[in-house]
Amino acid sequence: MTVYVDLVFLTNLAVDSTVLMTTAKVRHLRPTRTRLFGAALLGALYAAMMFWANIPYLYSFGVKIFVSVLMVLLAFGYGGPLKYIRVFTAFYVVNFATLGGVIGLSFLLRSADSPWGAISYSENGGLILEWQMQLSLFVVALLISIWMFRSAAATSRKRQELEQLFWRIEIHIGDGRWTMKALLDTGNRLYDPLTRIPVMIVESSVWEEQLPAGWVKRLKDEPPDRLISELDVGSPEPFEWASRLRLVPYRAVNGSSKLMLAIKPDSVTLLRDGHPPIQVSRVLIGLDGGTLSSEGTYRAIIHPDMAQADSASSSAPSQPA
Length: 321
What we know:
SpoIIGA; 11 strands; single chain; membrane; alpha+beta; transmembrane helix; Cathepsin D, subunit A, domain 1
């Protein structure tokens, strides 16, 4: 078999450069191009050396790890043991992910009569897996696998960032306590226009048993002021939360003005691991007739003023809205 060392060198230079740049992207690092090129050049020279020097121990496991250590140091520096270990681990994760993607895509795209045709056995009973791949197919598979890995890493990072916005909340109304998962919406700027009390949003289905019959379904299509007008104050069994109801005007996405039915709770407590609980009493809870999360991840949306409130001052009693 004829091996072109220049192609081996250039291919490894391109692959190592791509892997190092992907590692930098995953770890949010910005090394200079000179450092990246120097580290990739080291890796490419090491790969080409096996065709120039017949020194078996140079290609042992320990030497390969040593070369990888030098490549990461050249590209990203040291920065302390913990930081270096994380970068080094990310470097190998990217390597394994992209190599696995290249091999998988090559077998997927290559036509063969039988998958067993590429498998044979050595004289000592060892299993030999034949893997042949054209350079053009290798480049395509490498780029696709890098793109897939970066997309998966970006999705994972976004999910982690979104997790930072999740809270557990406890809503206190009278003798009732309701606990649910909530999302902090930094873009929520809904206030009661008269009192400037912040308004958080909760799915009305949370209180389907407490609200008058049919309200949860009717809130999807009917204006809330019509529902309030139907309340019979003189009824033998009046609505227990009637004095807590509020109508909050807001502007819809299409620019039209609408009303939202809201409830005045006794307090809302925000809970999250690693943070002291925040109890907020100066808040209104707007009722949403639909589903806030299509996946059921959360059932409430927190106003940003609530998360920024001081737990000591926010728990103090306030004037009713």
